[in-house]
What does this fold into?
Amino acid sequence: MKGHLPRDPVLLAFVLVVMAFILAPLAVAVSIGFSSSPFLVFPPPGLSTRWIARFLSDPEFMASLRVSLILASVVTVVAVLGALMLAFGLAHLRSPRLKAVLSGLIVAPLVFPVVVLAVGLLLLLAEIDLLGSPVGLVAAHLIIVVPLCLVTIQAAVDRLNPEIASAAASLGAGPVRVFATVTIPQIWASVVGAGLLSFLFSLNDVTFAAFLGGPDTQTLPLKLFGYVRYRLDPLVGAVSAIFVFTTLALIVLADRLVGFDRMLGIRRA
Amino acid sequence: MTGPRRSTLALSALAPGLLFLAVFFVLPVLMLVQISTWTFEPGALMRPGFTPAHYVAFLTDPFYLRKLALTARVALVVTCITLVLSLPLAYWLVRARFAGKGLVLGLVLSPLLTNFVVLVFAWIVLMGDNGAINQTLKAVGLPALKLLYSETGVVIALVHISIPYALIPLIAAVSQVGDDLEAAAMSLGASPWRAFFAVVLPLCGPGLGAAAFVTASIVLSGFAFALFVGGDSVLIVPLLIWQQVSKTLNWPLAAAMSVASLGIMLAMLALGMWLARLLGRRIAA
Amino acid sequence: MAEVSLSGVAKSYGRSAALLPTDLQIRDGEFFTLLGPSGSGKTTLLRMIGGFVEPSAGRIEIGGRDVTDLPPHRRNLGVVFQSYALFPHMTVAGNVAFGLKMRAMSAPERDRRALAALDLVGLADLAGRYPSQLSGGQQQRVALARAMAIEPDVMLLDEPLGALDLALRKRMQRELRDLHRKLGRTFIYVTHDQDEALTLSDRIAVLADGVIQQVDTPEALYDRPASAFVARFLGDSNIVTGTMAPDGFRLSDGTPVAIPPGRASGPASLAIRPERLRLATPGDPGVRLAGTVSALTFRGAFLTLSARLAGGPEIDVTLLGMPVRGSVGGSVGGSVGGSVGLSVGDAVTLAFDAADARLLPAEAALA
It folds into this structure.
């Protein structure tokens, strides 16, 4: 169509500027990660992998990376399983009122500013002596990640044709079996998408780690938090580069599996 | 499966999750409210006993009031800028036809999934007095801007991280507006931009509300950005809370401030829901 | 004036052609219908006239003005969308007045014209309601009023009655016809419902696979279809393939049919409507066809007798006004056949007037 707004040059220019704004900091951080200079200079005078090597050979950083990866993995697995159980439970409730109330309750943590949740958990964990422990941090992450997974999975479940499950039931499958063998395979792409989101959230969390962390829970972001306060050199750029590339790779993967546009509700042309 | 047995199955599937929620969500919130009324003893952390001192201090002390005003101002500015930048982008992402849309979406949302350190580091590099931005300005002959350790810098950083969060409800909202509506408006004589403002924008009301809510939530949580990009000069409420928790160890005060933040968010939520109901009466679900 | 003229207008998406180069002349003030199955290109054609789709080639003129490069908001057309596309956040009055707001006029003038448009469709008392509070039929009328309020040169209607139930659809068809007569404007209408097309139109263009098959008045299309597709799309038709020989038409097994030679020799098809066939009476002057009864179907107002002709082809005959007599509890064929004295398997001779048959170019195997 002539004059179609999506092709309007003013809109296109605006959109490009905004997208550049969104991506610029990432590009900057990554480019410094490959800087050949020992100082923080932008633009970097030359390219080198020295800072990446420095990061990968630092035992403390690697230890914190390991902590982060283990933590994120545990959180992801528990969250996905937990969300699936909750989705199953919600789907089989007989009262739609109860379903709405419980859904709202489960998703409520997402409405709270993360800092507020962090302080509350701080008080609780101190009380039950779990402050600074990995268990406490896992619990904190789960409070955000489980609702996140549920929302993603629930959206996919709601889009399913209910008659397929009914057909399975009419053929003699009990509700659990129907869910496991009929429902989940249909939504597995969303499950994987939810898992990826959970993993990345947990990996990148700094708020909970900062408020609730201790010597046993030195996650990578927390370590970097401390590092950036006192030293500013291209090392952080190197970490940024690794993070950004990993995130991008996972995004490409998630898009292949789920299709980001479909996940957000955009209908494909 | 018969009714009662099915309900039991459903409830037993829900039980562990709900229990977890009760312990690690409901309980902390209740504790927040309770401990916000406890007294603070330097050295002993806190002592049970009711005192409204923290709330009084937070809501009447001129220092805190200035910081509250600062937080409100930052939240307002960040929200407005974020919405203005995000809505056209959301519109384009939904309506434009091109291959690889999923990938572009992923890219645009990537800050959401990236570590805050990456962003903070980049802002420090870009916004410093001799950072990339100021260098470019000087090269073109324009005066340098104080971005780092200033409110402006914090606003920029918060807008940047808020855009992806705002895009999600906005994209959903624009998707709900039928293609035909813009075509109808144009057939009646509205130019494409006029059609956008007369038809698409009003119908995105609820989406804009949700985006504003999410952005406010981010501002009220953005202590890390305020700390690194604003230094000690941009003391928004989340940073104040962080200071109380990590330095002064005045947990009751931190709790009180958290409850106050929560109160603000809930008020906004109620406002949003009331507005949505007002609009919703007109628009079919 | 508001005649619409298309020259060489075509549309393709990548490799697939939605519409092949098309010429079309629509006269000022006529009710013109684009009729065809889904995928025929009729909606694409309408959308190109409306400016919502850019033609890959060709020129479009409205009222003598070249509008090919004009965006929709400058073409002054009234469009009624299949989904109605009413603005949910505006009242009925707001919707109808929207187009008027885009044009320079005073508020009182705007209100007057909006109300006049609503009056035309009989919804003046619902002006304050919102679209979500209206029924499907009412929404459809608001969509009409909104398009008419701007007094456009041409009205474009894209299957506007598709979502309505049968009774409502018939009533709206009558109202549309009256509206067209009252307004005297050019209406371009898209539908896949041949019944609707026959009822409403001054002229119809039948489309299939991106090509216009025939443009003519409803009567001409029905009585003188130019191709087997048109013959089948509009009403039922029997189509029998055979060969045109110098001495007349022959079925595929050689049986002669006494149709005077009207075409060049070669493969040809004979089209004859079921209602134009009858059971041959002794001394019947019509052309005869011999066959065996293969089925008898009760259709309420009439019976359909299906007969297999010598050589294989099966044709249907509509037999009107035959009361169904015969034993209760007998087979359907038996009781139906009882009224015409025939049962499945009987030999039967059918007759028709030569003038009622149409010779058509031979077509490929039936889809």
Residues 166-183 of chain C form the longest helix (18 residues). Confidence is low (pLDDT under 50) at residues 324-335 of chain C.
